[in-house]
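Lay summary. Proteins are chains of building blocks that fold into shapes, and those shapes determine what they do. In this project we predict the shape from the chain. Here is one chain we studied, written as its sequence of building blocks.
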Amino acid sequence: MEFRYLGNSGLKISEITYGNWLTHGSQVENDTAAQCVRAALDSGITTFDTADAYANTAAETVLGDALAGERRASLEIFTKVYWPTGPKGPNDSGLSRKHILESIDGSLARLKTDYVDLYQAHRYDHETPLEETMQAFADVVRSGKALYIGVSEWDADQLRAGQKLASELGFRIISNQPQYSMLWRVIEDKVVPASEELGISQIVWSPVAQGVLTGKYKPGAELPAGSRATDEKGGANTIKSFLNDEVLTGVQKLQPVADGLGLSMAQLALAWVLQNRNVASAIIGASRPEQVSDNVKAAGVKLDASVLSAIDDAIGSLAERDPAKTVSPQSRPS
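And here is the predicted shape, written in a compact code that computers can read:
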């Protein structure tokens, strides 16, 4: 495993982060989830990402149980706040002071830890004054309940405004967690340059485009049984935008590139996002422990200019690049 600094901080995290968005507490039984976490630890992963909203708090509980007994100082545990949780009342979502301060305590209890290494705003809250949100995060840091603060899917202007307030309050935003893959490059034009200016790293989710970049979805073919595209608990909705024959045909052109490097298609996709110098880590999920062991082999892989050119020839024109696609709900979800 290779490690990178997270933003302009002294915190190092593993190039591959284990995440449990659509798996723990939902698609994967708890015993299998624990096996996947064990495989992550055995593979050298030290960084684990979750959120209170995943499976309506159940994912945090599963991760906390799976990590119980591990040396806490050897792990980096990340969670998030914003999306609705619990009974989904009027104050059970967003980035109000009330919701943030109540949510961090709930997350710590479920994760069985006294602190998280990174506490992240899961989206930008248009209904709460940014000053209120950043003051609450400052208080979370000062209380020792979170060591660092990050955000997720904030646009360039939001990052600049948030970092200005954070600096005035005595802390820094060190990370952003956006979607990023060969097929989804919307952060490249504005978010990445702003982040480099502000000392913020990306921790990217869906680097394999919900599994599309593994090559298992073939143009004109039936969806593989048991795949995310057939999951009615949420997986099918997240992947459908990539499931068209033009995209799937382009993805198939990556197979010779991967073969030439001795990589799987998934490893190639993970290695590609890690070539971006502003990316600190790529988040992987897993429904089987062997998926973890396979994907971590992307850490440390260097792709030369000819390989990157071949990838662009196959995929470049099919990728979504519109920076306006980095967007948060205009009102709090309920």
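What the prediction tells us: DSSP finds twelve helices and ten strands in the chain.
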